[in-house]
Structure prediction request, 237 residues.
Amino acid sequence: MEYLALIYADEGGWELLTDAERRSAYEQYGEFSEAARAAGVLVGGNELAATATATTVRVREHERLVSDGPYAEVKEALGGYFILDCASFDDALAWAARIPAAAHGAVEVRPVHVDEEA
Amino acid sequence: MQYALLIYGDQSAWAELDDDGAARLRAESMPRWLALFEEMAKADPAVAGRELVAASEAKVVRVIDGERVVTDGPFAETKEQIGGLFVTTLPDLDEAIRIAALIPTAETGSLEIRPIVER
Prediction:
Protein backbone atom coordinates (compact mmCIF):
# COMPACT_ATOMS: atom_id res chain seq x y z
CA MET A 1 0.00 0.00 0.00
CA GLU A 2 1.26 3.46 -0.88
CA TYR A 3 1.73 6.24 1.65
CA LEU A 4 2.58 9.87 0.96
CA ALA A 5 5.11 11.38 3.37
CA LEU A 6 4.76 15.17 3.27
CA ILE A 7 7.85 16.98 4.53
CA TYR A 8 7.33 20.18 6.51
CA ALA A 9 10.33 22.27 7.55
CA ASP A 10 11.36 25.82 8.30
CA GLU A 11 12.39 27.40 4.97
CA GLY A 12 14.18 30.23 6.78
CA GLY A 13 16.52 27.70 8.38
CA TRP A 14 17.44 26.27 4.98
CA GLU A 15 18.30 29.75 3.69
CA LEU A 16 20.75 30.21 6.59
CA LEU A 17 22.72 27.03 5.88
CA THR A 18 26.21 27.23 4.41
CA ASP A 19 26.91 25.44 1.12
CA ALA A 20 28.71 22.67 3.03
CA GLU A 21 25.73 22.24 5.35
CA ARG A 22 23.36 22.02 2.37
CA ARG A 23 25.58 19.42 0.73
CA SER A 24 25.49 17.44 3.94
CA ALA A 25 21.68 17.75 4.09
CA TYR A 26 21.36 16.52 0.50
CA GLU A 27 23.69 13.62 1.35
CA GLN A 28 21.40 12.64 4.22
CA TYR A 29 18.43 12.66 1.84
CA GLY A 30 20.47 10.61 -0.63
CA GLU A 31 21.18 8.06 2.10
CA PHE A 32 17.49 7.89 3.03
CA SER A 33 16.51 7.42 -0.63
CA GLU A 34 19.13 4.71 -1.10
CA ALA A 35 17.96 2.81 1.98
CA ALA A 36 14.30 3.08 0.99
CA ARG A 37 15.08 2.04 -2.57
CA ALA A 38 17.16 -0.95 -1.42
CA ALA A 39 14.25 -2.04 0.80
CA GLY A 40 11.83 -1.79 -2.13
CA VAL A 41 9.88 0.94 -0.31
CA LEU A 42 10.69 3.99 -2.44
CA VAL A 43 8.15 4.72 -5.18
CA GLY A 44 9.09 8.34 -5.82
CA GLY A 45 9.66 11.73 -4.35
CA ASN A 46 10.32 15.33 -5.18
CA GLU A 47 11.77 18.47 -3.67
CA LEU A 48 9.51 21.49 -4.14
CA ALA A 49 10.92 24.93 -4.86
CA ALA A 50 10.50 27.45 -2.02
CA THR A 51 7.01 28.76 -1.25
CA ALA A 52 8.12 32.16 -2.60
CA THR A 53 7.84 30.58 -6.06
CA ALA A 54 4.33 29.23 -5.44
CA THR A 55 1.24 30.32 -7.35
CA THR A 56 -2.26 29.67 -6.05
CA VAL A 57 -5.20 29.24 -8.42
CA ARG A 58 -8.91 29.31 -7.58
CA VAL A 59 -11.98 29.41 -9.80
CA ARG A 60 -15.02 31.19 -8.41
CA GLU A 61 -18.17 31.91 -10.43
CA HIS A 62 -16.23 30.78 -13.53
CA GLU A 63 -13.60 33.49 -12.89
CA ARG A 64 -9.98 32.43 -12.57
CA LEU A 65 -8.28 33.99 -9.52
CA VAL A 66 -4.49 33.72 -9.51
CA SER A 67 -2.34 34.87 -6.62
CA ASP A 68 1.37 34.71 -5.86
CA GLY A 69 2.42 32.65 -2.88
CA PRO A 70 1.42 29.39 -1.24
CA TYR A 71 -2.04 28.32 -0.09
CA ALA A 72 -1.06 28.67 3.57
CA GLU A 73 1.53 31.08 5.00
CA VAL A 74 3.09 28.93 7.66
CA LYS A 75 6.48 28.89 9.35
CA GLU A 76 7.07 25.25 8.52
CA ALA A 77 6.18 24.88 4.87
CA LEU A 78 5.71 21.85 2.66
CA GLY A 79 9.11 21.37 1.05
CA GLY A 80 8.83 18.00 -0.60
CA TYR A 81 7.48 14.49 -0.34
CA PHE A 82 8.21 10.83 -0.76
CA ILE A 83 5.81 8.13 -1.94
CA LEU A 84 6.51 4.98 0.06
CA ASP A 85 5.15 1.50 -0.57
CA CYS A 86 4.80 -0.13 2.85
CA ALA A 87 3.01 -3.15 4.31
CA SER A 88 1.35 -1.12 7.07
CA PHE A 89 0.84 2.39 8.45
CA ASP A 90 3.33 1.51 11.21
CA ASP A 91 5.98 0.63 8.62
CA ALA A 92 5.30 3.90 6.81
CA LEU A 93 5.71 5.81 10.09
CA ALA A 94 8.99 4.02 10.78
CA TRP A 95 10.33 5.02 7.35
CA ALA A 96 8.98 8.56 7.72
CA ALA A 97 10.90 8.92 10.98
CA ARG A 98 14.11 8.27 9.00
CA ILE A 99 13.49 11.25 6.71
CA PRO A 100 16.03 13.87 7.86
CA ALA A 101 13.39 16.61 8.32
CA ALA A 102 11.63 14.49 10.98
CA ALA A 103 14.44 15.54 13.33
CA HIS A 104 13.93 19.30 12.87
CA GLY A 105 10.53 19.69 11.17
CA ALA A 106 7.64 17.27 10.78
CA VAL A 107 6.59 14.54 8.38
CA GLU A 108 2.88 13.98 7.73
CA VAL A 109 2.00 10.48 6.57
CA ARG A 110 -1.18 9.95 4.53
CA PRO A 111 -2.39 6.72 2.94
CA VAL A 112 -2.92 7.01 -0.82
CA HIS A 113 -6.52 6.43 -1.84
CA VAL A 114 -7.07 3.18 -3.73
CA ASP A 115 -10.08 3.06 -5.99
CA GLU A 116 -11.85 -0.21 -5.19
CA GLU A 117 -13.19 -0.51 -8.72
CA ALA A 118 -9.77 0.00 -10.28
CA MET B 1 9.60 22.72 -16.19
CA GLN B 2 8.24 20.12 -13.81
CA TYR B 3 5.44 21.31 -11.54
CA ALA B 4 3.63 19.90 -8.54
CA LEU B 5 -0.07 20.82 -8.49
CA LEU B 6 -1.18 20.55 -4.87
CA ILE B 7 -4.92 20.12 -4.43
CA TYR B 8 -6.32 21.77 -1.31
CA GLY B 9 -9.96 21.12 -0.51
CA ASP B 10 -12.38 21.42 2.39
CA GLN B 11 -12.89 17.81 3.43
CA SER B 12 -15.55 18.50 6.08
CA ALA B 13 -18.34 18.12 3.49
CA TRP B 14 -17.06 14.61 2.72
CA ALA B 15 -16.73 13.73 6.39
CA GLU B 16 -20.47 14.19 6.88
CA LEU B 17 -21.35 11.70 4.13
CA ASP B 18 -21.82 8.00 4.69
CA ASP B 19 -20.13 5.53 2.32
CA ASP B 20 -23.07 5.54 -0.12
CA GLY B 21 -23.21 9.34 -0.17
CA ALA B 22 -19.47 9.56 -0.76
CA ALA B 23 -19.67 6.96 -3.52
CA ARG B 24 -22.51 8.91 -5.17
CA LEU B 25 -20.64 12.21 -5.01
CA ARG B 26 -17.52 10.53 -6.37
CA ALA B 27 -19.52 9.01 -9.25
CA GLU B 28 -21.15 12.38 -10.03
CA SER B 29 -17.82 14.19 -10.26
CA MET B 30 -16.07 11.36 -12.14
CA PRO B 31 -16.88 12.56 -15.70
CA ARG B 32 -15.21 15.91 -14.99
CA TRP B 33 -12.14 14.22 -13.54
CA LEU B 34 -11.92 11.87 -16.52
CA ALA B 35 -12.10 14.87 -18.88
CA LEU B 36 -9.35 16.52 -16.82
CA PHE B 37 -7.13 13.41 -16.99
CA GLU B 38 -7.57 13.41 -20.79
CA GLU B 39 -6.63 17.09 -21.05
CA MET B 40 -3.65 16.63 -18.72
CA ALA B 41 -2.41 13.62 -20.69
CA LYS B 42 -2.57 15.71 -23.87
CA ALA B 43 -0.34 18.34 -22.26
CA ASP B 44 1.99 15.73 -20.71
CA PRO B 45 1.57 11.99 -21.39
CA ALA B 46 3.79 11.27 -18.37
CA VAL B 47 1.58 13.15 -15.89
CA ALA B 48 1.28 11.35 -12.55
CA GLY B 49 -1.09 11.86 -9.67
CA ARG B 50 -2.12 10.54 -6.30
CA GLU B 51 -5.35 10.94 -4.34
CA LEU B 52 -5.03 10.77 -0.57
CA VAL B 53 -7.43 9.41 2.01
CA ALA B 54 -8.98 11.99 4.35
CA ALA B 55 -6.62 14.22 6.30
CA SER B 56 -8.34 13.08 9.50
CA GLU B 57 -6.52 9.78 8.98
CA ALA B 58 -3.12 11.48 8.77
CA LYS B 59 -0.38 10.97 11.33
CA VAL B 60 2.56 13.26 11.93
CA VAL B 61 6.02 11.95 12.83
CA ARG B 62 8.72 13.93 14.56
CA VAL B 63 12.00 12.76 16.03
CA ILE B 64 12.75 14.69 19.21
CA ASP B 65 16.01 13.95 21.05
CA GLY B 66 16.24 10.69 19.15
CA GLU B 67 12.74 9.61 20.19
CA ARG B 68 10.00 9.03 17.63
CA VAL B 69 6.86 11.04 18.47
CA VAL B 70 3.68 10.31 16.49
CA THR B 71 0.55 12.47 16.69
CA ASP B 72 -2.85 11.94 15.07
CA GLY B 73 -4.24 14.30 12.47
CA PRO B 74 -2.67 16.43 9.77
CA PHE B 75 0.28 18.78 10.30
CA ALA B 76 -1.47 22.02 9.31
CA GLU B 77 -4.59 23.20 11.13
CA THR B 78 -6.08 24.73 8.02
CA LYS B 79 -9.69 24.43 6.87
CA GLU B 80 -8.57 23.14 3.50
CA GLN B 81 -6.25 20.16 3.46
CA ILE B 82 -4.16 18.52 0.75
CA GLY B 83 -6.34 15.85 -0.86
CA GLY B 84 -4.02 14.90 -3.67
CA LEU B 85 -1.40 16.09 -6.09
CA PHE B 86 -0.30 15.91 -9.69
CA VAL B 87 3.24 16.06 -11.03
CA THR B 88 3.51 17.19 -14.62
CA THR B 89 6.01 18.66 -17.05
CA LEU B 90 4.67 21.77 -18.78
CA PRO B 91 6.23 24.52 -20.92
CA ASP B 92 5.64 27.36 -18.46
CA LEU B 93 3.71 28.71 -15.49
CA ASP B 94 0.88 30.02 -17.69
CA GLU B 95 0.18 26.50 -18.90
CA ALA B 96 0.38 25.21 -15.31
CA ILE B 97 -2.20 27.84 -14.28
CA ARG B 98 -4.47 26.84 -17.19
CA ILE B 99 -4.31 23.17 -16.19
CA ALA B 100 -4.72 23.92 -12.46
CA ALA B 101 -7.89 25.92 -13.18
CA LEU B 102 -9.38 22.84 -14.92
CA ILE B 103 -9.10 20.73 -11.77
CA PRO B 104 -12.64 20.52 -10.31
CA THR B 105 -11.38 21.28 -6.78
CA ALA B 106 -10.23 24.73 -7.99
CA GLU B 107 -13.92 25.75 -7.90
CA THR B 108 -14.39 24.93 -4.23
CA GLY B 109 -10.86 24.84 -2.84
CA SER B 110 -7.40 25.98 -3.92
CA LEU B 111 -4.70 24.73 -6.26
CA GLU B 112 -1.12 25.51 -5.33
CA ILE B 113 1.45 25.29 -8.10
CA ARG B 114 5.04 24.65 -7.04
CA PRO B 115 8.02 24.16 -9.35
CA ILE B 116 9.95 20.95 -8.63
CA VAL B 117 13.64 21.33 -7.90
CA GLU B 118 15.73 19.47 -10.45
CA ARG B 119 19.24 18.68 -9.33
In short: Chain A touches chain B through 46 residues (CB under 8 Å). Chain A is about 30% helix and 35% strand.
